[in-house]
Design brief:
This protein is an alpha/beta fold and about 290 residues long. The chain has 13 helices and ten strands.
Length: about 290
């Protein structure tokens, strides 16, 4: 960031005052190193990956709580092999006092490994509230999904929003990351027009190498044309460079309108760089 740059007031208040971060169950040491730069009470999501097991996920949630943050364990519906596995995970979280907040997502597998085809099926089991969950995050896709059509995505989001209400669960929506603010804000406005009033956390990539950003973008169907790359602040011809979300956050603040967009926060995908992301946020807020 240039020394003389300014950040719109909305970035420093409603958008970044309650940001959230994401980590994997293997990143406890990274969290311990980064925790002095992370505000107490920050929500930290813990992913549910195929190469991690139940003890690792529970240990990560305990570490997040021990360090003074709010653990938000993920539940990947299609990775669950049985109802018993879901109950075991939730029971473990409840026993550790880390079950109040979860994030429920369909997950990466193309086919369900057990009885749950999607996040909605998990929410409708009634097991979340039974095991102490009070807040459940759900996913949103402003630029679509490479394997799911737009109408299906809207239907799923609407159904999950309704199911949270039926289960007496509070919630929010965390979006897939992107590089272009315009489709993100248009999507947020559309969710409000469809009657969904949950807080929305806009997915933002933490500072990372361009090659890594491109790898994740290709995996999740995120638009990366040359024009979008320039708008965000990197070049597709220099994959050895790095990029941070400075321009994206400024554009988000400039385009944000509380009346049209409702409650909006920021969620940082750290891509394994939890310390680098937390330090970047601290510098960005201080310089702003």
């Amino acid at each position: 960031m240039n020394a003389g740059s300014t950040v719109p007031a909305a970035v420093g208040t409603s958008l970044l005052d309650d940001f959230s971060l994401e980590m994997t169950a293997k990143d406890i040491s990274g969290l311990e190193e980064a925790h002095p730069t992370i505000p107490p009470g920050t929500r930290i999501n813990i992913t549910f990956l195929g190469n991690e097991d139940l003890p690792m996920r529970l240990a990560a949630a305990r570490a997040v709580k021990r360090l003074g943050f709010v653990p938000v364990p993920h539940i990947s519906a299609r990775r669950l092999k049985s109802r018993a596995e879901l109950e075991q995970f939730l029971a473990g979280l409840k026993a550790d006092g880390t079950a109040e907040n979860v994030f429920v997502v369909g997950g990466d597998p193309a086919r369900a490994e057990g009885p749950y085809e999607d996040a909605l099926a998990v929410i409708r089991t009634g097991l979340l509230r039974h095991h102490g969950v009070r807040h459940a995050g759900i996913s949103g896709y402003p630029e679509g999904h490479p394997a799911i059509t737009g109408p299906v995505l809207w239907s799923a989001l609407t159904d999950k929003h309704a199911a949270l209400g039926e289960e007496l669960l509070a919630g929010d929506v965390i979006t897939q990351f992107g590089f272009d603010v315009d489709p993100v804000l248009a999507w947020v406005e559309e969710t409000r027009a469809r009657g969904m009033d949950l807080p929305i956390r806009i997915g933002v990539p933490g500072p990372a190498g361009v090659r890594r950003l491109m790898t994740y973008a290709a995996r999740f169907g995120v638009g990366t044309s040359a024009a979008i790359a320039r708008k965000y602040g990197f070049s597709l011809t220099n994959l050895m460079g790095t990029a941070g979300p400075d321009r994206f956050l400024r554009a988000l603040a400039e385009g944000y309108d509380a009346g049209r967009h409702g409650v909006v926060k920021v969620h940082f995908y750290t891509f394994g760089g939890l310390g680098a992301t937390s330090e970047w946020i601290a510098r960005f807020r201080q310089e702003g």
